[in-house]
Design goal:
The protein is of the alpha/beta class. 38% of the residues lie in helices and 17% in strands. Strands 11-12-10-13-14-9-15 form a 7-stranded parallel β-sheet, sandwiched between helices.
């Protein structure tokens, strides 16, 4: 897309402004050149203590004063290497000593060069007491030259930026460096065109960074930051605008045919489509009917019936002479989709077979662990075009599978797929055409957050769920409380006695093995539960207790409440046939309790399951927990979910309580946004773009995001290659590289 622009103007390396060591310290937190340094926002500002006379200072107090240098004395330290620099300063009435302990001679020289006798300074620091001399002193004060004019006085009292630094560099070094850098602010790349800035009443970049780093007033800092926030939103929206511009130039098969498969399918559905499904279905049909590839995000709560909508669009592709593919994040889910779709289609899915319907097509499953013969047949059908509908895991993408005429790709549960997958899908269309792409997610993203996160997708939202869903009640169960725990298993036993089934989800497979392949992207970092010793339970063994799938299954077999229950296990490291068999047993009711990892998280549909027990619930992300509890209450029976945790009441546990209390995915998405930012709600690359946001807050800055979007789309529409906007093109390139350094862009 964008040509490789090695940044329109190379940013000035910090080595030109700073000592090597300081430059290296800054690069350790991402400040690597003038460009990043001047965009590195202070965490807050301190307003210096008011200027006062030395006569009034008190030991232990923060002070600032205007003084001049009277004497400078240097002596070596007694106990270690280095020097003590003592500088006596006076405000014409009183004197005070500034003391510096300096390990290196070059530092002594540096201070001496600035602390020349007679020079006027503003000094800031905390007053201490020198017990040798019996007089007050300030150790390692902040100081700067003072200019005795109204501007000088104001400058001396300005708010001082406090940067989010690491230990390896001092605030004052950072301040000095940015102040120096500001002299070169005119050389910075300026991604936002001047006309946009003036229309929005924003400062120019040099003005803005001056106000951010050397503000005269607190109001200045706000005006300065407003530019940086807008700039970030603008560059992000320009990325989305460019992607859409590329789509608008790419041909796609227009999937416009109606019937026969679509109509036959609708006639056979065992239920009525809801008004929402029909409406979203129509919108989707309009999208895939275009001559250019669309990227649609189809969002709706778990169980809202997205699959049927997608399936109807896929049949439209087949009716239009093309193929459709459905990608699932796990084999279990791919197999389930294959089962339901084949079932729903009936003889419509049996083309070429004796009992196949006249207009039938073939539905093929392709996963990584299929047998060779089966695979070969599938691949043949895919390449020849006989298979109108192909279902599989992303193995489908990685193995050079060639489609005869791919018109539509549907990705289920998008947060498991990256933009890389989407890009690869885009190349699988027939003769230079790009298929349409629909991604489905059960964690809906609120509108403004969607603009900032998946702004290159058109969002269609399914608001209602089919009425037959009985719904789920969620409880947080503190594991320390054995009465509650007993009650929880007791409840599970009651459900089993009533003929229902139970899921038990563990964070890992066994004690030695970690999790399930790569950790799910939204899993929070390992939080160690508090030790139970804290509440006097004196139980190291409790902590050692079995937590994995296999050990948990054993432990449950020994619980008296569950005596006689048929317990099955399911995890990602089982052979494919075993997994399939367990799912079939579960579906057929031959298993009462399925102990599993998160393989069952996404989309698994067992209508008779009524109870979901998540152990170590704090180890799961918000959307994951929502997905998990969405596995029950799917049929006519009300569901119960238990989030079992060893956490004691506190922040992390209140997150669980919030999840338990949230009515649906929409409410949860808000919680997730507030607590953790938008990164977890969206796919890999968008989350890269999100993670690397420095100034923008997708909730607080909703209005700015909308304005920036309008402006960026207008700029890109007028100049799609950004030939007249090299600084913007460079900023986009940098942004994409930072967000996803491994991906080679084309
Ligand atoms: P999700 O949006 O979570 O992917 P599904 O598409 O898996 O939801 O649908 C959940 C269940 O509801 C499935 O068993 C599906 O067959 C059923 N379903 C879908 N639409 C309707 C409807 N209009 N009326 C009744 N049941 C429906
Ligand atoms: Mg689904």
């Amino acid at each position: 897309m964008a040509r490789r622009v090695e940044s329109a103007r190379g940013s000035m390396p910090l080595s030109e402004l700073l000592e090597r060591k300081e430059a290296r310290a800054m690069s350790s937190f991402g400040v690597k050149d003038l460009d990043t340094m001047l965009r590195f926002a202070p965490r807050r500002y301190t307003v210096p203590a008011p200027l006062r006379s030395l006569h009034d200072v008190q030991v232990g107090e923060e002070m600032s004063a205007i003084v001049s240098v009277v004497r400078v004395k240097e002596r070596s330290m007694r106990s270690r290497r280095g020097s003590i620099l003592e500088v006596v300063v006076s405000d014409e009435v009183e004197e005070i000593t500034l003391t510096f302990f300096l390990a290196k001679q070059h530092l002594v020289d540096w201070h001496r060069s600035r602390l020349v006798v007679g020079k006027h300074l503003v000094v800031r620091g905390t007053v201490g007491w020198n017990s040798y001399s019996g007089s007050p002193q300030i150790t390692h004060p902040d100081y700067e030259e003072y200019d005795d004019t109204p501007e000088g006085i104001a400058h001396a009292q300005r708010p001082l930026p406090v940067y989010p630094l690491k230990q390896n560099i001092a605030q004052r070094t950072m301040r000095a460096a940015t102040e120096q850098g500001i002299e070169f602010a005119g050389s910075l790349a300026q991604p936002v065109p001047g006309s946009v800035l003036s229309a929005r009443g924003l400062l120019t970049l040099p003005q803005a960074v001056t106000k951010v780093h050397v503000p005269a007033t607190v109001q200045d800092t706000r005006e300065g930051m407003a530019h940086l926030v807008f700039e970030e939103a603008f560059v992000l929206q320009a990325i989305f605008a460019q992607r859409r511009a590329v789509d608008a130039r790419t041909p796609a098969p227009a999937l416009r045919a109606t019937g026969p498969l679509q109509d036959l399918f609708d006639d056979r559905l065992p239920f009525e489509l809801t008004a929402g499904q029909l409406e979203i279905g129509d919108q989707l049909a309009e999208h895939v009917g275009r001559d250019h590839p669309t990227s649609v995000l189809l969002q709706g709560d778990v169980g809202s019936g997205k699959t049927v909508i997608a399936l109807r669009a896929m049949l439209r592709a087949v009716d239009s002479g093309h193929q459709a593919v459905l990608l699932a994040p796990t084999e279990v889910l791919a197999e389930q989709h294959h089962r339901t779709i084949t079932q729903l289609l009936g003889d419509l899915a049996r083309a070429g077979q004796l009992d196949g319907a006249a207009d039938a097509t073939r539905v093929r499953l392709l996963t990584g662990s299929q047998r060779t013969a089966e695979r070969r047949q599938t691949l043949l059908d895919v390449t020849s075009g006989l298979a109108g509908i192909v279902i599989g895991t992303h193995a489908l993408l990685t193995e050079g599978v060639e489609f005869a005429a791919l018109g539509l790709a549907v990705i289920d549960e998008q947060h498991r797929f990256g933009v890389d997958h989407r890009r690869r899908l885009r190349t699988k269309g027939p003769s230079g055409m790009s298929p349409h792409v629909v991604v489905m997610t059960a964690t809906p993203i609120p509108r403004t957050a969607a603009l900032a996160t998946v702004g290159d997708l058109d969002v269609l939202t399914l608001r209602e769920s089919p009425g037959m869903r009985a719904g789920v009640t969620t409880h947080v169960v503190p594991e320390q409380n054995s009465r509650w725990e007993t009650r929880m298993w007791g409840r599970a036993a009651e459900e089993i006695a009533a003929g229902r089934q139970v899921f038990v989800v563990c964070a890992r497979i066994d004690e030695t093995g970690a999790g399930e392949g790569s950790p799910p992207p939204e899993a929070p970092p390992e939080q160690l539960p508090p030790t139970p010793d804290a509440d006097g339970g004196g139980a190291a063994p409790r902590l050692e207790e079995a937590r994995g799938v296999l050990a948990t299954a054993e432990r449950l077999a020994g619980r008296p409440e569950l005596a006689g229950a048929r317990i099955g296990v399911l995890h990602g490291r089982m052979p494919s046939e075993d997994k399939q068999r367990v799912m079939e047993d579960m579906l057929a009711g031959r298993i009462d309790i399925l102990v599993a990892t998160t393989v069952i998280e996404v989309g698994v549909d067992i209508p008779n399951a009524s109870t979901m027990i998540v152990l170590d619930a704090e180890r799961f992300g918000v959307s994951q927990l929502h997905q998990l509890r969405g596995r029950v209450g799917r049929g006519e029976h009300a569901g119960i979910a238990f989030l079992s945790t060893r956490l004691t009441p506190g922040d992390a546990r209140s997150r669980l309580e919030q999840i338990a209390g949230a009515a649906d995915g929409f409410a949860l998405a808000e919680i997730d946004l507030e607590t953790r930012g938008a990164g977890d709600l969206v796919g890999e690359e968008q989350s890269g773009l999100q993670r690397t946001l420095k100034h923008l807050d997708v909730i607080r800055d909703a209005r700015i995001i909308e304005q920036a979007r309008e402006d960026a789309f207008a700029v890109v529409a007028a100049d799609p290659d950004l030939t007249a906007h090299p600084d913007l093109a460079g900023a986009i390139e940098n942004r994409l590289r930072d967000a996803d350094p491994d991906v080679e862009r084309s």
